[in-house]
Write a structure and sequence with these properties.
mainly alpha, Arc Repressor Mutant, subunit A
């Protein structure tokens, strides 16, 4: 049974390698619109509905302080704004401005084009199978960590 742990170790290494390559690609896509990947992620997480910074951070799986720093930059640059939160007076909601929606739209369009290139020559069923496997591995890790 030693081949299973070896294969899992290799899968983990491959996932980290893919994540690094995709992160670099994402940075280049965001940079073409004058943004960073961190800013892209925060714009994206509040694109459907304004959220408190703490909830946005939980959804992204990063620290509240990191999201707060990026949120402040986005507000400073007119891409987002803080709005009153009817449920919690001291925790405003972060939402996109029209300008922020435009920037996010530009990044999203660039990402869609990049994804078309990445998917060329790969059967949709193979992509779906890879996604399924990654979701199952993620769920196993979460169960192991008691999440």
């Amino acid at each position: 049974m030693p081949e299973v742990p070896d294969e899992m170790a290799l899968l983990v290494a491959d996932v980290y390698e893919a994540a690094g390559a995709l992160r670099r690609s994402g940075e280049a896509i965001a940079a073409a619109e004058g943004q960073t990947q961190a800013r892209w992620q925060v714009l994206g997480v509040v694109s459907d509905e304004p959220l408190p910074v703490a909830r946005a951070a939980r959804r992204l799986g990063i620290t509240r302080q990191g999201v707060q720093r990026v949120a402040n930059e986005l507000v400073r640059d007119g891409l987002a704004d803080f709005r009153p939160n009817p449920d919690h007076r001291s925790s405003p909601l972060l939402g996109l401005t029209d300008r922020g929606r435009g920037v996010l739209g530009g990044i999203t369009d660039r990402a869609a084009a990049a994804h078309q290139v990445l998917a060329a020559g790969i059967a949709p069923a193979d992509i779906a199978a890879a996604r399924d496997l990654l979701r199952r591995v993620t769920e196993q890790v979460r169960r192991q960590q008691g999440e």
